Amino acid sequence: MRTVGVEEELLLVDPETGDPKALSAVVLARAARCETNPEEPSVFQKELHNQMVEFATRPHERMGDLAADIVAIRAEAAQHAREAGCTVAALATSPLAVSPSVSIGHRYKWMAEQYGIATREQIVCGCHVHVSVGSDEEGVAVLDRIRPWLPTLMALSANSPFWQGRETGYNSYRRRVWLRWPSAGPTELFGSAEGYHRRVSDMVATGTILDEKMVYFDARLSARYPTVEVRVADVCLHAETAALVATLVRGLVETAARAWEAGEPPLVHSVSLLRLADWRAAHSGLMGELVHPVTMRNAPAQAVVGALLEYVKDALSDSGDLERARASCAGLLLHGNGARVQREVFERTGSLREVVASCVRHTQA
């Protein structure tokens, strides 16, 4: 069975006011002192901005184990943050105004100089899912076949309706901010591993990006692991939603790999259409219509989510994840994702500080 790992970025906030706090160095130092095996890479890593911290789970075969790992590491992050004088929130953007400070390091300095305000304002938190593949050739075949389904994952995870103290009109405004990077977004078909690596090399050769790790495709081959890395999701307010996204990503990878082995060609939707589907998912989330991944026409969110579940049904059934995925999707459609939770708190209280406080509680539940 394919293994799955998740990387989540969390926002560090003041436990009283909800304002983002630039304390990542202190949090990471406390986490490092608690590491039991210095030979293993740390679970926690610094991010572009000092108001953020990132963690990575171990790879898992069982989705229940992955969900438990996410919950446990979120709790550990919260403990380290408390000792540093802040707390953690699974917020894809800060509802409150923030002046981000860029972390120290050659890479981040290069980005700040190269991209200017886009770097300074890029304080957004995402969820990245890694799924194991047998080779680069299989991985690229997967990338070519999962492209039209990725906006649906974004809609499920949407968790960023507020930006710098304002209602944005989007369910995932993080997505709009993220696309300021020159290499971000959906891709054309690569056709082969050779085509993929040639594309990446050509992009690096322009000097616009520093290296292959700065190729921010919606889905890419990992530069570190033998995995496909899917990068479209907001950090999810609830750990269960993060586990759902990971489950669906593995289902997509397995379904696409089987289709490749069977000689089935990928859908040939243009990047122009994929960008429109992407915009619609970021705007509407689960609250309105999405662009159907097959027909590229508007359809109710419930129908599009149902189409995704139907597409990966065999893979999820084989891994034992189908019923849990169906139940989780039904719950999101009924009760809403993080964006809906945030808006409901704001409608009830009129306070973005209460929105942050509520999300802190959801994050650590």
Describe this structure in words.
It holds the Pfam family GCS2. It catalyses: L-cysteine + L-glutamate + ATP = gamma-L-glutamyl-L-cysteine + ADP + phosphate + H(+). It comes from Streptomyces vulcanius. The protein has about 375 residues and is of the alpha+beta class. The chain has one domain (about 5-365): Creatine Kinase, Chain A, domain 2, CATH 3.30.590.20. About 50% of the residues lie in helices and about 15% in strands. It has 15 helices and eleven strands. It has helices at about 25-35, 65-85, 105-115, 115-120, 135-145, 150-155, 175-180, 195-205, 240-260, 270-285, 300-310, 315-320, 320-335, 340-350, 350-365; strands at about 5-15, 45, 50-55, 85-90, 125-130, 160-165, 165, 220, 225-235, 290, 300. Strands 1, 2, 3, 4, 5, 8 and 9 form a seven-stranded antiparallel sheet that branches. Strands 6-7 form a two-stranded antiparallel sheet. Strands 10-11 form a two-stranded antiparallel sheet. A hairpin with a 6-residue loop joins strand 10 and strand 11. Helix 1 (about 25-35) packs across helix 2, helix 5 packs across helix 9 and helix 9 (about 240-260) packs across helix 13 (about 320-335). The radius of gyration is 19 Å and the shape is globular. It starts with a strand and ends with a helix. The model has no long low-confidence stretch (mean pLDDT about 95).
